[in-house]
Write a structure and sequence with these properties.
Layout: H1 2-6, H2 8-40, H3 45-58, H4 63-73, H5 83-109, H6 112-120, H7 125-140, H8 142-155, H9 167-178, H10 181-213
């Protein structure tokens, strides 16, 4: 316990970095995920094929491989960025595939009559998707999206492989000095557990509220 108290400032800095990485990556993944979802349910066959290929590709690639390739490969073609920025972009692109899949399942859960009614009112595909279909789809996938946020948070631990000093990387550095892995990594694990519990609590409350609104 004393070792955790002695290094609490460093662990706090790592926790803040992890939260920043999680929030920024989720926002990026959500924006891209909505776009991919629109492609997957588009009436244009080419767009559907591209959206499906995106999801299938990134769901079957290890995130660590993508992080390392981006960190070492992009500078070779003249694209340079800070490790944190690289991690945010790569994790966003990776997690967007999972968000798109969750949203697509929500879109499929919306009754076909909703889309037909929107078209009868003269709405375009984009307007009906944005104003009618997606708002209803989101209500059905709050919990799956919460699970994705939790998984994303855990995946941020891989960012240490490209020099991002997050919570896991701070724990590693402290352990190199103190050589007390059990205490240090149990403490870091509890911090991750608190984040996951917080996300689960918020999504649970949000899901119940949306059910009552429905």
């Amino acid at each position: 316990m004393s070792v955790l108290l002695d290094h609490l400032p460093e662990l706090w800095q790592g926790l803040v970095a992890t939260l920043q990485l999680t929030v920024a990556s989720f926002v990026g993944a959500a924006v891209l995920g909505v776009l991919i979802t629109a492609m997957r349910v588009s009436p244009v066959g080419v767009l559907r094929a591209l959206g499906t290929a995106y999801v299938e590709t990134f769901q079957n690639l290890p995130l660590l491989v993508l992080l390392v390739l981006a960190f070492f490969g992009l500078p070779e073609i003249g694209i340079k960025a800070e490790p944190l920025v690289t991690a945010i972009v790569v994790i966003s692109v990776y997690e967007a595939a999972y968000i798109a899949e969750a949203l697509r399942s929500g879109v499929n859960a919306v009754g076909k009559g909703q889309g037909e009614a929107a078209r009868a009112l003269g709405l375009t595909f984009r307007q009906s998707l944005w104003h009618v279909i997606l708002p209803q789809a989101l209500r059905t996938v709050v919990q799956p999206l919460g699970n994705i946020v939790i998984a994303l948070t855990m995946n941020t631990a891989l960012a240490g492989a490209i020099s991002v000093v997050d919570l896991t990387e701070e724990a590693k550095r402290i352990n190199l000095v103190e050589a007390q892995p059990i205490a240090i990594f149990v403490g870091a694990g509890l911090m991750y557990a608190l984040i996951a519990a917080g996300v689960g609590f918020v999504t649970g409350r949000l899901e119940r509220r949306l059910v009552m609104v429905r």
